[in-house]
Amino acid sequence: MPEPARDPAPASLRPLLRWIGAHVRGFHAAVGVFLSAGLALALGAVLAFAGIARLVGRGATQAADEAALRWIAARHTPALDTVALQLTYLGATSVVAMTLLVASTLLWISRHRWSVALLWTAVLGNAVLNTALKLLFARPRPEVFPYRIAGIGESASSFPSGHAMSSVVVYGTLAYLAARLEPTRRMRRATLASAVALVLLIGASRLYLGVHYPSDVLAGYVAGFAWAATCALGVEAVRWFRGRRPAVDTEEAGLDATPDATGTSAPQG
Question: pTM of the entire structure?
Fold first, then answer.
């Protein structure tokens, strides 16, 4: 079946999309105006990341970072060690890859193919971005207390946290995709709240295990949000305005419904 027409875009974005549809002509112009307006949010996150990176580069966060880790170290217990290890594995590459494959397969089978495009773009782009940022900043791992994960000291640099970035991008994007298909506001809020809680717990596990400073995790959250928001805005703009293109491939046009300039949905094909 085609992708549901009843939910062409999240309710929070529809007023802006409808206004642009009524005042801007052409596919590329409409997409450009929407992205220019929507990317202000992502730009704010980018600026926040730049501010954190500057403070870290100057060593301004080091004393507070180490103090926070020493406070955490004083509260270690065997039970919490086990919980933290289980939580941190949810942000590991192997688990992220399995989650991506399962989710994208289900979305593809159910013909939510724009959602698959968003998910893969977000996750693969995040991997490239995090690698580049780690190479750029090359911050050594903390050495405040012994790591709870064997061999972690020989792995990639500390800033920004890859687990924090990945958790925001993967679980945040999945929650966004799930929430836009759910019928009630209560279900959507529960889905998004669950994703936020999971992301925060994964970040906390990295601090508890001693493999990241708090500033690493915070920077990872901010960078992950900026990238995920950029990807989501891009896909929403293309989905909403794609009916304006001079020619739409027949097979692609039948994948889901496309809203017209007034915001109502009309089936393609």
Answer: 0.75
